[in-house]
Amino acid sequence: MAKPKVLAGIDIGSAKIASLIAQYDELEDKLSISGVGSVPSKGVRKGQIVDIDEAASSIIESVEQAERMAGYNLDQAVLTIGGGHVDSRNSNGVVAVADPGGEISSQDIERVIEAARAVSLPEAREILHVIPKEYRVDGETQVKDPEGMSGVRLEVETHLITGSTTAVKNVQKSVSEVGVTPQGLVFSGLAAATSVLSDTERELGVVLVDVGAGTTSIIVYIEGSIAHSSVLPIGSKNVTNDIAAGLRVSLDSAEKIKIMLGDRRKKGKAGEEDNDELDLKSYGVEEGDRKVSEKTLVEGIIKPRLNEVFTMVGMNLADSGVAGKTPSGVVITGGGALCVGAAESARRMLSLPTRVGTPKGVVGLVEEISSPVFAAAVGLLIYSSRNPSSREMSWSPANIISKTFRGGLPVRGLVGRASDLVKKILP
Questions:
Q1: What domain range is 281 assigned to?
Q2: What whole-number distance in Å separates Cα of residue 176 and Cα of residue 223?
Q3: Per-residue 3-state assignment (H helix, E strand, C coil) for 55-87
Q4: Per-residue burial over 122-154, b = 16 or more CB atoms within 10 Å of its CB, e = otherwise
Q5: Is residue 333 part of a domain?
Q6: Which of 88, 131, 216, 236 could form a disulfide with 232 if both were Cys (CB 3.0 to 4.6 A apart)?
Q7: Mean pLDDT, the chain cut into blocks of 10 residues (427 residues total)
Q8: Is residue 6 part of a domain?
Q9: Contact between residue 47 and residue 82 where contact means Cβ atoms under 8 Å apart
């Protein structure tokens, strides 16, 4: 019986660093989450690493949490990459079929994809993904898988997602600093789409909007293939900033209010008080006005910013030419999807049916990750399981570690703290 593989993903976001460990049974095609770690992120702004040491500190804390839960010492992981530097374009490739008999092989498919990949990029940019949209065999269109078909000319239309070489290196270095080898990078919007969208939605046409803290990622599927992707430089942190300014409280308190108000609406407690007052002290907020109107907070501060976010999404869709081609509507995910009124704002601004997407397709510690916040992290694992090019780790006794070491301190933590001590001693 084949041993299950161990897959690991690290989602590096502006608000949090999430690390997941899972066992993957290839025979049953089943992913079982065995370790979850999530900590506030440091050194990350608008999806990009701005301080490698601080980012590495958050990554190591998140990884250690997942390791302790799974009882496994990570040495490899797939990573998310996001930020305003991410861009996309479409590209075509054409090759002649190598077999004189005209049968298309997997090597022909690889060659035509490489041909589509051979595009001129600005300096300091690189390709993150080459995603086939449609193949054509001797002019016959809408071919999904040409392998085994007969023809002499093979064409492919692809969607290329590109990123800044500097940003790529910074992400890789931040993770390498903590002793984890990057297996690959996945655009955070693509990772989120992988875990929350259904096949039916992709076929009919759907817009995935991943509202992060610093950025908002957009992925559009039409007829099962990616037609458009983009990143907007706005996110739920803008809502937090507005609350802080409007209520004259700190950013930490504003974030707390935003989260607790979202939970309150989700549990159906909104509007229970006849006077519509919220006691901020009960939210753990000591500064600013002690009591505020919930309606004023939601309608006057939160929703206007959410309306702006989704108005920008609508403009992006119109500019890309995909507006009106997504009858399945909009799926919003990410931490911003938990903001009170997010789904309503998306529905109103985009004039499309809207739902909040949560991660699907995994078993195990499902309750721990059943939130839009973990959409990209779970998507990393699913993406890894579907892409054999990702090097997977074997689950074996040699890789199992004790959950504690010398009084409960994780091995990686000991090494890190020893390294910090040496740095302080040396001039």
A1: 231-356
A2: 38
A3: HHHHHHHHHHHHHHHHCECCCEEEEEECCCCCE
A4: eeebeebbbbbbbbbbeeeeebeebeebebeeb
A5: yes
A6: 216
A7: 85 96 92 96 94 96 96 93 95 94 93 94 93 93 91 95 96 94 95 97 97 97 96 96 92 90 69 66 73 89 97 97 95 96 96 97 92 97 81 33 30 44 44
A8: no
A9: yes
221 in a structural domain: no
At 206 the three-state DSSP class reads: strand
DSSP 420: H
Q: What is the residue whose two structure tokens read 């301190």?
A: 409
| The pair of three-digit structure tokens given for residue 350, joined into one six-digit string | 């985009």
Q: Which of 218, 214, 219 is CA-nearest to residue 233?
A: 214
Q: What's the total number of domains in the chain? A: 2
Give yes or no: residues 237 and 150 share one domain.
Answer: no
**What is the DSSP-derived secondary structure letter of residue 299?**
I
What pTM did the predictor assign? 0.87
Q: Is 154 in the same domain as 235?
A: no
Whole-Å CA distances, 45 to 42, 49, 83, 267: 8, 7, 9, 31
For 360-388, give the secondary structure using H, E and C.
CCCEECHHHHCCHHHHHHHHHHHHHHHCC
Q: Which of 129, 144, 163 is the last residue of a domain?
A: 163
Any residues with CB less than 8 A from the CB of 317 and at least 6 apart, and which? 207, 218, 220, 228, 323, 350
Q: Domain for residue 313, yes or no?
A: yes
